[in-house]
# Entry
Amino acid sequence: MQSKFASLIIIALALITIYGVEHFRSAIPSANAHFFGVPILQNKTVGNYKIVFQPYPLIPIAEDNSTQINLSVLDNEGQNINLMFSSLSIKQKETGELVKTFPYRLYEFSDMTFPYTFPKSGTYVVTLNSKINGDPVYSKNPLVVDFDLPVRSGGLFESFRELMIYFLTPALIAITGLAIYLRMKKRI
# Structure
């Protein structure tokens, strides 16, 4: 009896971990972490620095407020840089229209996250400007690097995903829990 109850707890925790994080993401405070970069993305090298570009989601969705533009500037040993000033600008690639500027600010570490909701689908150019403390070149003139970022429209897939996350998954968890409860009840 105890092993069945323990199994039920493990299954419930696994389901909550898999599906609950997506649902409760807005209530969980974000934490900074080191971005290593995905090899298929546009990671770039400028001088002795590797710039990791890791947007979330990988291809952002227009009008989705969960989009985060994650960037990291790493030294030639792959380590974070301490105390650097950075700004970010976002332009629409087709028109060149500047749609957002994040002003320079001091970052304790070179891992940076910029939340942004793209107004419409299309291709955008994300430009990072970083002044690197102690570097003979980039302490006065910023390191500048551009990344192209495609943004897609929501559409049917997004509606299906929301249906799965908010309605079908909790219903299946409730039905499974009820079935296990009723099965255990008959054996008592």
